[in-house]
Amino acid sequence: MARFECSSGHGEGLKRRRALALGLAVSTVAATAGAASGVRVLTSSEQLRPSYDTVIVGAGSAGCVLAHRLGRAGRRVLVIEAGGHANLPAVAEPPLWSTLSGSALDWRYATVPQPGLDGRIVPYPRGKVVGGSSVINALAYQAGHPAAYDRWPAGWRHADLLPYFKRAETFSGGGNAWRGGDGPLHVLSLADVRDRTPVASAFIDAAQERGFAMTADLGGAVTTGVAWNQLSISGHARDDAATAFLDSLDGAVDLLVDTQVRGLVIERGRCLGVRLAGQVVRPEGEVLLCAGAIDSPRLLMVSGIGPADALRADGIAVAADLPDVGANLEDHLLLAGVAFRARREVQRSHYNHADALLYVPHAKAGESPEHLIMCLSLPFVQPAVGALPPPAFTLVPCLMRPLSRGSVRLASADPMAPALIDPNYLSDPSDLESLVRAVTLAREIGAASALADWRGEEVYPGPNWEDVAARHDFVRRAARSFHHPVGTCRIGAVVDAMLRVQGVTGLRVIDASVLPGLPAAMINAAVTAVAERASDILLGG
Question: How many domains does the chain contain in total?
């Protein structure tokens, strides 16, 4: 029987990743990794045990956290994952993260045409792999400003989640009132390394020159200002949900890989199990849907849980009329980008290319930031903007509090058909004007004297920025997804405060889809903390 090759826990999973990064064959990696952990990897449904307490659909960040905590508590857990193991060498190497989009580890989703972006179809990468999108993302791991969580329902605000942010992580700066010191996931602050890029150092000086204070720890008492990035890295290797939470597991958990769930079995208002090809798996307890902000609502809808009229139009029998399933899709936008030709070669990052960033403090004290500006040590512009040959560097403005809302809908009743993803970018005019302000600030920082030694000329948006129509045109051409979808099964609309699907017993949703709003940061830390707290709810803590 295949197993995770891990005996001493988390370290062995990272050894496997580092071996892959060196180009060793998968069989060689397995041979060097040691004895098996408590995770039993199944390649066929014929290998399933006779019974399970809990079935988890999806081995992304939330699913891995839940498997870890429930397995350690002695629950008999089955995790079903549509993808396989992360066997590409680029996964381990932080600078190569961008090569993973469109790879075999990506679902390769795309949006419907976006009117607010001149009709462009936007790529929408989602991880099809054990570890989910934490395996293919840009590694950023930040909780963000407390005020964003304090807009969420009671029980899910910052004070409620802080113990779980801490429990999940081992922070490179050590544990304190804000940070965890002995959790499964390793978080590296680039303040604690010496091999940062010189252009990022100049960006930090430029932001300070423009009046922004330096922040020592973005996850500490002050979460705004200019700072060194924080990433899910142990040593120089990616530490994702699989290496952190599954490789360190010592409980009895089965992981069925390369198996796509085709729907949920709902009878008389109760979820009895999950439907595979030619088989139904029925847990003795609950089904936990952890398939993410795109596929969790899709699976609910193909199973008859969602907006009744739309389901009937697709020929799907209605099990529960929940109009908000698939609605309220939120996603951060970024602009690629405010670009500068460099005076000389720009040293590439050893990390994720954005060694430094600025969370712009909100004009109103105590509010979460509206904008993030990242300094990338490489050319990064949308093809619709134009070409940018090296040497170059880019300042990337990001919209952290968008007002536009989109949806995830079914393309058909076919359980294997990808959903229709419509983020509805820039449908609210305020988002366009907010991004204009962010670009203006990025240009001001880029023009600071601290960057003069690196700055040759501003290539984009260039002198046309002074024209209002040109500003709007640039934003529409440069905007793209930050790949942070949330809200499609949000707390208070689709699930209750205990993450139970309303009107259906035996079923909970636990992933980015339940987030009632975007955090003021990348979403992986928020999803991890929500899953950590959900595990305590499930265990009666």
Answer: 1
